[in-house]
Design a protein that fits this description.
The chain is mostly beta strands. It contains one helix and 24 strands. The strands form six sheets. It has a four-stranded antiparallel sheet with strand order 1-10-11-12, with no helix packed on it. Strands 2-7-8-9 form a four-stranded antiparallel sheet, with no helix packed on it.
Length: 250
């Protein structure tokens, strides 16, 4: 009897010690709380389809913004954390596939992190947020709101991770496949100093003298979103109306 009790204690002790780690190949159980080891934070895939990180007081620290969309959350064998829609579409992706991710960790500091060994690939609260693939920057939902100024080297990925927009170190604003092959460019290499999706809805690349060297010419037309789409098209929208596109839909 004592042996059985000791065995049970060891099993449950192990579960408590490792409860903060989710490993590749695991499907997150709906409504189960995955606690940090200090029991101050937990990750939960809710019944409404949203994947949320909470603190113990019930305040949301991060969420996948997939409520009323997600039906399944998986930390896949390929290292990608994905929330799927009913039609097997992707509602959220960490864009960490193919980078040898090993574990998703709910940390004691309230950060949700995907690791390859000791190397962080994605985090809920850092410059690694939403992927970044090769350079530590990135946005995984494909959308940029007005007022956003691009950092050089920043990548904005489409939700499926197949395409990204980047303001390169050479000053060119470029849309590429995830392999790095270019499918559209502003042609501002060796000219661009900064790129901004302005508050007036215009996407502009400026030179070092603050002179525009490329523009989408969408100022004051009600633009509110720049979207890197799953079809490989870069589109500026005013609500649901397209105002400009790269014309690269595949």
């Amino acid at each position: 009897m004592k042996k059985h009790l000791l065995a049970l204690m060891m099993v449950f002790g192990g579960l408590l010690i490792n409860a903060q780690n989710i490993y590749t190949g695991q499907t997150l159980e709906q409504n189960r709380k995955y606690w940090a080891s200090n029991n101050r934070y937990y990750l939960i895939f809710q019944n409404d389809g949203n994947l949320v990180l909470y603190n113990r007081a019930g305040a949301s620290m991060w969420d996948s913004k997939t409520n009323n969309k997600g039906v399944r959350a998986v930390f896949q064998e390929d290292g990608n954390l994905v929330v799927y829609t009913p039609g097997n579409g992707v509602a959220f992706s960490s864009n960490t596939n193919g980078r040898r991710a090993e574990r998703l960790t709910v940390q004691d500091d309230g950060n949700l992190v995907i690791y390859n060994g000791s190397n962080p690939l994605w985090a809920s609260k850092s410059d690694l947020k939403n992927g970044g693939r090769n350079n530590g920057f990135g946005r995984g939902n494909g959308n940029v709101n007005t007022g956003h100024r691009f950092r050089k080297g920043e990548k904005v990925f489409s939700p499926n991770g197949s395409y990204y927009l980047a303001f390169q170190n050479d000053g060119n604003l470029v849309l590429s496949y995830d392999s790095g092959d270019v499918i559209w460019a502003a042609g501002t290499d060796n000219k661009g100093s900064r790129a901004e999706f302005q508050a007036d809805g215009n996407l502009v690349v400026y030179d070092s003298y603050n002179k525009p060297v490329w523009s989408s010419n969408t100022s004051r037309r009600g633009a509110n979103k720049l979207s890197v789409q799953n079809d490989g098209n870069l589109v500026i929208y005013g609500d649901y109306t397209p105002l400009w596109s790269s014309g690269t839909n595949r």
